[in-house]
Amino acid sequence: MTFPYAALALADNQRSLWMDAYLGVRRRSEALCTPLSPEDYVIQTCPEASPAKWHLAHVSWFFETFLLKEYLAGYTEFHSAFGYLFNSYYEQIGKFHPRHERGFLSRPGVEEIYRYRAHVDEHMQQLLYSADESIWPSIRQRLEVGLNHEQQHQELLLTDIKLNFHANPLRPCYRSDLPQIAGASTPSLHWVEFPGGLHEIGHEGGGFAYDNELPRHRTYLYPFRLASRPVTNGEYLAFMDDGGYGTPRFWLADGWAAVKRLHWSSPMYWELIDGVWWQFTLGGLRKLNLNEPVYHVSHYEAEAYAAWAGKRLPTEAEWEIAARHLPLAGNLADSSYLQPIVAADGDGLQQMYGDVWEHTASAYQPYPGFRPTAGALGEYNGKFMCNQMVLRGGSCITPADHIRSSYRNFFYPHERWQFQGFRLAEDT
Amino acid sequence: MTFPYAALALADNQRSLWMDAYLGVRRRSEALCTPLSPEDYVIQTCPEASPAKWHLAHVSWFFETFLLKEYLAGYTEFHSAFGYLFNSYYEQIGKFHPRHERGFLSRPGVEEIYRYRAHVDEHMQQLLYSADESIWPSIRQRLEVGLNHEQQHQELLLTDIKLNFHANPLRPCYRSDLPQIAGASTPSLHWVEFPGGLHEIGHEGGGFAYDNELPRHRTYLYPFRLASRPVTNGEYLAFMDDGGYGTPRFWLADGWAAVKRLHWSSPMYWELIDGVWWQFTLGGLRKLNLNEPVYHVSHYEAEAYAAWAGKRLPTEAEWEIAARHLPLAGNLADSSYLQPIVAADGDGLQQMYGDVWEHTASAYQPYPGFRPTAGALGEYNGKFMCNQMVLRGGSCITPADHIRSSYRNFFYPHERWQFQGFRLAEDT
Amino acid sequence: MTFPYAALALADNQRSLWMDAYLGVRRRSEALCTPLSPEDYVIQTCPEASPAKWHLAHVSWFFETFLLKEYLAGYTEFHSAFGYLFNSYYEQIGKFHPRHERGFLSRPGVEEIYRYRAHVDEHMQQLLYSADESIWPSIRQRLEVGLNHEQQHQELLLTDIKLNFHANPLRPCYRSDLPQIAGASTPSLHWVEFPGGLHEIGHEGGGFAYDNELPRHRTYLYPFRLASRPVTNGEYLAFMDDGGYGTPRFWLADGWAAVKRLHWSSPMYWELIDGVWWQFTLGGLRKLNLNEPVYHVSHYEAEAYAAWAGKRLPTEAEWEIAARHLPLAGNLADSSYLQPIVAADGDGLQQMYGDVWEHTASAYQPYPGFRPTAGALGEYNGKFMCNQMVLRGGSCITPADHIRSSYRNFFYPHERWQFQGFRLAEDT
Amino acid sequence: MTFPYAALALADNQRSLWMDAYLGVRRRSEALCTPLSPEDYVIQTCPEASPAKWHLAHVSWFFETFLLKEYLAGYTEFHSAFGYLFNSYYEQIGKFHPRHERGFLSRPGVEEIYRYRAHVDEHMQQLLYSADESIWPSIRQRLEVGLNHEQQHQELLLTDIKLNFHANPLRPCYRSDLPQIAGASTPSLHWVEFPGGLHEIGHEGGGFAYDNELPRHRTYLYPFRLASRPVTNGEYLAFMDDGGYGTPRFWLADGWAAVKRLHWSSPMYWELIDGVWWQFTLGGLRKLNLNEPVYHVSHYEAEAYAAWAGKRLPTEAEWEIAARHLPLAGNLADSSYLQPIVAADGDGLQQMYGDVWEHTASAYQPYPGFRPTAGALGEYNGKFMCNQMVLRGGSCITPADHIRSSYRNFFYPHERWQFQGFRLAEDT
C-alpha cells in the first residue's frame, strides 16, 4: 500500500490527490481489520479500549459530522442514532453514548458499519469533486484533520485489539505472519550532547499540524545529553531484578500508589512461564527479546527506572530539539513489524521515530499563546491539557506519514496499553 | 418442535427415546439462536447476563464433564482450555473464568462453538448407544440432569438476550414475528381458599426433580387464600401512582435501599415516552398492556406492592399446595408468545404455570433432611441456599416439559431481569 | 447493680417500680461508659459500629420521640437538630443523618449528650408520675419497648467499642479488671435428643416480647439432636488446620465469595503472633483459650464448619423447643466476664443462654400471621425480615433480664462483630 | 504572639534565637487548638483532612525522627508505636498507619499528645543547647525544615478543622470572635503589564527555601498582563448565573467529569438558603460578601472561569516575576481574619500575598537541574511532582513568615478544601 498523502504539502489544490489520500487512509483502516472475525469487532475489555467496529464507525462519523453535514447540500445522515453512538467526546456536537458501554452494542453489526463507511465515502467523493472553490479551503482544512484523525484511530485500533485479545486466556494472535528479526545484540548506549540556550519549538509550518503543536515559541534550555537509544528489555529487567517494583524511593508518590493498587511487577504484557519471560505481541506470545526496546511501561515506570539509573527523562522541548533534523524514518507501521525491533548501531540518535512512543518529563500543557481551534473541533486536543504527560516520536504502529518532530501525543501517567517506551537524558 | 422428553417417565430404559430427548433439547437451544447475528452472540452487558455463545458452550461442557469424561472410554476433550472457559461455578471441577469477563472473549467464535456442540453430540450418541448396562443407570441419571440443565439455560439465554439487547439504545428486536393478543380486559380478581393443617410438600417421585425439591416432608399451614391471578400492569400502575416508589413504609429496609441506590421508579424494561408507558419485550418495544401480568419486578417490589395492598405474598408451601392438582399447562415457552398474556376468565386459579415466575415470601433454604447430590453436582443447587428467595411456576419462556409443582427457582431479592411477577395471598 | 425490671411482670401498674426500672436501665448505660475517655466516645471505624455517644443519645431520642413528645403536654425537645442526628432509621419519623457519618460529629460533645440524657430523664420522671390513668397503658407499653431498646443498645455499645478499639494498632483495653477463669478443660460433647411432631413456638405471653416473636404458632419438626454445648476454639482450630478456609465445597457460594473478598482465614479478632493464637477481647489481647466457645464467626463460617463436621445448624424452632424449659441463666452481661467461658460439665444442654449468640439455619422471616406494630415503631423489626439470619440465646454481654427462649436476634450472614458462636445439630 | 523566626537569616549561629523560634512555632500550633474540645481533636471526615491531634503529633514525630533520634545521644523515643502512627508518608523511614484511618484512633488521647509534645520540646531544648559545633550546621538545617514543616501543618490544621466541622449539620464555629470588615465595595479591576524575555525564577538564596524552589534558573516569558486583584465572589456568581457549571465547553475534560461526578454547582462551602448565598467560614456561617475574593474553588473551576472570561491563569513563572519585588505583606494568618478580605484600592497588584492561594496554569514539575534533598527528607516534595498544580502567594491562614515569592504550593486539580482562589492573566 502506498500513501500519496505525503505529497500533499505541494498540492494543496489538486483535489484528485486529496481524494487519493482520502481513499488511501480509508482503505488502510479496513485493511487493518482483515484478520478480524465478526466477533472480534465487538468486544471492549476496559473503558480505554474501544471495539474495532466502533473505531471504524467513529472515524466515519467524524467526516459525516464535520464535512458532509456542514458542506454537502442535501446530505442525509446514514442513521439518525449514529450521532449518539459514534460521537466520542464532542460535547458541543451533542450527547453521546457512554465510553465504557461501547462493547455492549452488537448492533449495528459489522456489515452495517461497512455500509456506513461506503455511504460516507461515496458522499465524501461527491463533496470533494463538487464543492465550490469558495468553500474548498475550509473543506481541505477539515479533510486534513479528518485524515489525521483516522490515522490516529488506526493506531488505536491496533492497541485496542492487542488489549482486547490479551483479556482472553487463549491469547489470540492478531497476525501470525509478521516478520521477525532474530537474535541481534543491543548496540552499546552512548550519550549525545546538545547545547543549551534559547530555542524554538512547535510546528514550523509547511504541512499539517494539530493545534496543540502551536504556536511555535521560544523556550530556554540548559545543555543536556540524550541516550543514543531507548532502554531495552534487558536493561529494564536489571531494574526489576534489583527490586525496582518493591522500592518506593524510586517512585513518584502516585506511581507507588499505582504499583500497589494495580499489582504491577513487570511491564504490561509480560508473562513469566516456567522461569522464562514471554511477551504478548500482535504476533502472539513470543519469548522476550532482551535486546528490543522495553514498551508498555507507564510514565511512572519510566520515571522509576530513570531514578534507579540516576538519570532522568528528557523534556519534550529537549526531545524536539534533538529530533528536528533527523530524517522522518524508522520502524513505523509501514515497516510491518508491528513490534519494536533491536536498535541499529551508529553514532547518533537511534530510534527517535518509530519503535516506541517515548515518555517525556513534560506535563501536557498549552504552549504560550495557544488558542484551540474554534468550534467543536477545539475539543480535539485542548480540553485534555491537564493530568496527562507528553510522549514523542511515534511507534511501530504509527503510520509513517503521520509523525513529525513537533507531534505531541499524551496519556495519563498510569496508562500502559499504548506502545510506550522511553529514552534517558541527563544534564551536562 | 415437539419434545418427546415428557414421555420418558414411562420409558426409563429405552435408549432411543433418551437419544431423541437429548437431540430435541440440543436442537431447541440452537433454534433459539436463529435470530442472532455473530455479533449478538458475544456481548455481556452485566455480570448476570452471559453471552449467548457462552450458554451454548457451557451446556455442552456440562455433558462433556459429567458424562463423556466420566463414562466414555478414550474420550478426548474438544479443547483443553474449554474446561476453564465454560465451567460456570463448579469449584470441585477446577478453576474457572471470571463470570463478569465472559463478554471479553471473541474467541472461540460462534462457528467453533457450534463445532464444539457437534463434537459433544456425536460422542454423546456414541456413549448412549454403546454404554454397558451396568453403568446405564448412572448415565441415565446424569443425562437427565444435563437435559434439565440445558433447558434452564434455554430460559436464561432468552432473559440474557433481552437484557443485553436492552443496553443498546437502538432497542434491537429479538423476534419481530411473535404473536400478540389484542386488547382483552383483565378478569376480575377473586380469592381461592385453602384449608390449613399438616401438608406434605416436595417432589413426590415419578419423574425428574432437582435435589432441592427433596425430601418430601410435612409442613404445617394455617388456612389461606390465594388471588385468582397475578397482579397486572394496571394494578401495579395504581401502586406507582399512589407514590409507591417514594413511600418507605411499604418497603423492606433492604428494598428501600435498593430503590434509592438503583433509582427504581417502575418495573424494569418500562419506558415513559411522551406520557405513554412502553415496555421492552423480546418482540421489541410495545405499548404497555394494562391487562397483562406485571413482570420484571424484584422481590422487594412485590413485597412493597403487597404491603401497599394490605396483603402478602404466598409462601412456597402455600403455592405448592395450591398448584399441585392443577394441570401442567399455561403460557409457557412452547406457546411462543415469549411474553405474559392476559389471564383467562374462570373460577379457579389462573396462570399458576407459565406467564411469570411468581415471587413467594419464602427464603430459599434446605428442606428438612436435605442432602445435596454427592460430588461436584452437589454444587448445582445447595450452595445457593442463602440470601435468595424462592419463585414458583415457570414463565412464558420456560420449556413446557421443564416445570412442575415442586419446582423451586431462586433469585436474589433485588434481581429483576428474570420474567418475575407475583400473585397476592392473605390469611383467612 | 440490681435490675428491678424482671419483677415488673407482676406489677404492671406500680409506677414507682417502672420508674426504678427506667432509672436502672439508664444508669447502666452510663456505667458501661465509665472506662471511656471523651475521645473514645467519638470514633466510628465502620458503618456498622456507631460511636458510644451516638448510642447514648439515640436511646434518649427514642424516649423523647415515642413518649415525651407524644404524651407529655408542653414538652420542648432538648435540641431541634437532635431528631435528625439521633434517629437511626425510622423513616416515618423523618429524615436522619447518614449512618456511616456518625463518627464525623465531634459536636454535640460528650457533656452535652449527658445533659441531654438528664433532660430526658427528668421529663420521663415527670411523665411517669403525672400521666393520667387513661393514657398509662399506652405509656407503659412504649416505656417497656424503650427499656428493651436501651438494653439492646447496651449490648451494641460493647460490640462497637470492641470493634472501634480493634481498629487501633495500640489495641486499647476497655476494662483491664475483668475476671478470668483459668485453664479448665472442655467437657466432652454429647447429643441431646428431641422428638418431632407439631410444636408451638413464639412468645407465650406473660412478660415483654417484641412483635417479631409473635404470633405463637404451630410448626412441624422432625426428630433432631442438639450438641450439648457450642463449638469451641479448639474444635474450630481443627477445622482451620484441615484447610477449612481454603476448601470451597464446605461453603455456601456467598460464603466462599466472602472468604475471598474479605480475606478471612480465622475468626474475627484472632491474631497469630509468633506462632501463638491470641484473641482481642474487651479485656485486651489474651492468649486464645482452646476450651472456650468460638465466637465472632459469621453465619457463613458456622455453616462451613457444620458441613466439614458432617452436621448442620439447628433451625430456630428446634433451638426454641430445646431451650424453653431451661432456666433463664448463664454467662450473661451481669456475670461480668464480658467474654464466653468454658462450658460446665453436665448431662443436658449447656450454655443455651449467654456466652455466645447462636447461629441458626433459619432465615429471619415473619411468623405466620405476623403483623408489625402500628406506626413508626413497626419499623423496629419487621422491615429487616429479608437477607438476615436468626440468632438465639443471648451472649455474655446481653443483659440478664433481656433474654428469653422466644427472642429472635438477626444479622446478615457475613457479619462477625457481634458475639456470635454456634452449636451443631443433626437429624435423628 | 511575635515570631522571632524572621530575624534568623542574620543569626545563623545564635542558638538562643533558634530556640526562641522553635518555641514560638510550637506554641503557636497549640494556640490554634485552644478553641477545640477533646472530641474535636479526633475526627477525620475524609482522607485528606487529618484530625487535629494527628497534626500535633506528626510535627513532633518529625523533630523526633529527623533530629532527636539522629543527633541526641541516648534519646529514647516517647512511645515505640508513634513512629508507625505519626509518620505521614516517609517510605524510607518505615511503614505507616493508613492515612484514611487517622480518625479511627481515640488513643493516644489529647493529653498524651500534649505530653508527647512536651517530651519532644524538652529534648529539643537539650539538643539545641548541647549539640557539638561540628554537627550544629546539620542540626540547624533540619531544624529549619522542621519549623517550616510545622508551619505548613498549622495551615493544614485550620483547613482540616474547617472541613471536618463542615461535615456536621450543626455547622460548628471554630472561632466566633474573628474580626470582620463590613460592606466595602470591590476596587475595579485593571491590568498590570510585564515585559517578556529571559527571566530567572526560583529561590535566590538569603533565607530558607524548600528544595522544590531550586535551582534558580532561566526561563523565557512572552509579555503578559496580570489582573490587579483576584476574582471576587460577585464576579464568580456572574459565571454561575451564565450557566458556568452546565456548559462543558468552558471546562477541561477532567474538570467536566469532576463537575458531574462530584455534583458541583458552586464553590465549596457555599450554601443557598432561601435564595440567599451563605458561606461557611472559620467564624461560622456568614452571608456571602460579593466583594471578597472567591475561594475554595478547584483548579478546574479556575480554568473554567478563565475560559468563560476569555482570559487565562498565569503561569507560576509569570506570577513569581510579578511578585518578587512586592513587600511580603498581606492578609496572612497573623492578621487574624482567617478569611479573605476585600481588596484595597491602588494602582498596582493587590493581594498577591495572603488572602487566597492563587491557582496557576503550571503543572507541578521539577525545575531544570532539580535534585531532591538526600535521604528520607527528599520525599518531602519531589515525589509529588506529578498530577498536581502549582499555587502561589499564601492565604489568610498562612503564617506571615512562611511565605515568599518563590514558594510553590501544590494540590490536585480537583481539590477544593484549601483556601484557593485565583487571579486572571492574558497575553499582551
Detail the topology: elements first, then pairings.
The structure is a homotetramer of 428-residue chains.
Chain A: H1 15-32, H2 52-71, H3 82-86, H4 110-130, H5 136-166, E1 191-194, E2 197-201, E3 217-221, E4 224-227, H6 233-241, H7 253-262, E5 270-273, E6 276-281, E7 284-287, H8 299-309, H9 316-323, E8 357-363, E9 389-392, E10 409-411, E11 420-421, E12 425-427
Parallel strand pairs in A: 8-11
Antiparallel strand pairs in A: 1-4, 2-3, 4-12, 5-6, 6-7, 8-9, 9-10
Describe the structure.
The structure is a homotetramer of 428-residue chains. With 428 residues, chain A is of the alpha+beta class. The first copy, chain A, folds into two domains: 5-166, Four Helix Bundle (Hemerythrin (Met), subunit A) (Up-down Bundle); 191-427, paralog of FGE (formylglycine-generating enzyme) (Alpha-Beta Complex). Helix content of chain A is 31%, strand content 12%. The first copy, chain A, has nine helices and twelve strands. Chain A has helices at residues 15-32, 52-71, 82-86, 110-130, 136-166, 233-241, 253-262, 299-309, 316-323, and strands at 191-194, 197-201, 217-221, 224-227, 270-273, 276-281, 284-287, 357-363, 389-392, 409-411, 420-421, 425-427. In chain A, the strands form four sheets. The first copy, chain A, has a four-stranded mixed β-sheet with strand order 10-9-8-11. In chain A, a hairpin with a 2-residue loop joins strand 6 (276-281) and strand 7 (284-287). The longest helix of chain A has 31 residues, at 136-166. Chain A is globular and about 65 Å long. The termini of chain A are far apart. Residues 1-7 of chain A have low confidence and may be disordered. Chains in contact: A-B, A-D, B-C, C-D. The A-D interface holds A 89, 91-92, 198, 217-222, 248-249, 251-256, 299-300, 303, 361-363, 365-366, 368-369, 378-379, 383-387, 413, 427 and D 89, 91-92, 198, 217-222, 248-249, 251-256, 299-300, 303, 361-363, 365-366, 368-369, 378-379, 383-387, 413, 427.
